[in-house]
Design brief:
Elements: E1 5-7, E2 17-20, H1 23-32, E3 40-44, E4 49-58, E5 63-72, E6 80-86, H2 92-103, E7 107-112, H3 123-137, E8 144-145, E9 149-150, H4 151-157, E10 164-173, E11 184-189, H5 197-205, E12 209-212, H6 220-232
Parallel strand pairs: 1-3, 6-7, 6-11, 7-8, 7-9, 10-11, 10-12
Antiparallel strand pairs: 2-5, 3-4, 4-5
Length: 234
């Protein structure tokens, strides 16, 4: 039987018993899932470890767990993928967060590009989506989400510590072997309508190689998931 998984804010480490003062977790366990003492769950402290635990007691806004087993998660991504994505219309970025988390993206960087129509995000809602998607998909670490930035800001601040690639129809055809040896890689996904010539010049100036996904015209959110799949699951 697959155990329910819950992220917690307190680091557990090698503790054999832990009391978590978290009214939201208390409500979720007791009132939503109807757990009683003795119930088995997996708790996660966002360190890459999984803690198989028994519920020892429910207090006022708190839950006490007995830790049965501590193990490194087997579901850590094969490489660190940073998805640098121009904001698509409506709530499609939320869909990218959900599906990208399920695939194994480690970091999401939302970009306001020249052709972006949407320029804001509900960060609290996005972080909830990341947490719930990580729990549902069996991950032991929640991906990070940066604040919204312009392309210039991202190129100046974000991409100095890892190699990057950008996707554009005029680029060389992409195959997974292009990133096979990389342990970390940043992938730029453009907006509907594509990157402008000015933006493509900025990528070239920063020595970021351009690749194509082929002749089909993909929506931005589709391209984001296709790229994530090619980089992480092949």
């Amino acid at each position: 039987m697959r155990l329910h998984r819950f992220f917690v804010t307190e680091e557990i480490g090698k503790s054999k018993e832990v009391t978590l003062r978290d009214s939201g977790l208390h409500h979720q366990l007791k009132n939503v899932f109807r757990f009683t003492t003795g119930g088995q769950v997996v708790i996660l402290d966002n360190t890459g470890y999984e803690y198989h635990a028994l519920i020892s007691a429910f207090g006022y806004g708190e839950v006490t767990f007995s830790i049965v087993k501590r193990a490194v998660s087997k579901n850590l991504p094969s490489k660190e993928l940073i998805l640098l994505c121009s904001l698509p219309k409506k709530d499609k970025f939320e869909w990218i967060l959900e599906k990208g988390t399920e695939i194994g993206v480690m970091h999401f960087v939302p970009i306001v590009s020249d052709r972006s129509e949407k320029k804001d995000l509900n960060i609290e809602r996005c972080e909830k989506i990341l947490k719930e998607s990580a729990e549902q998909s069996g991950r032991a670490m929640i991906p990070t989400l940066s604040g919204i930035q312009t392309l210039e800001e991202v190129l100046d601040r974000e991409v100095k510590g890892y190699p990057c690639i950008v996707f554009d129809p005029k680029g060389e055809m992409f195959v997974p072997e292009h990133v096979h040896s990389m342990t970390s890689v940043g992938a730029f996904i453009g907006p509907e309508g594509g990157w402008t010539e000015r933006e493509l010049y900025l990528f070239k100036k920063n020595k970021i190689k351009s690749y194509s996904l082929g002749g089909m015209t993909l929506r931005a959110e589709t391209a984001a998931i296709v790229v994530s799949t090619l980089v992480l699951l092949t």
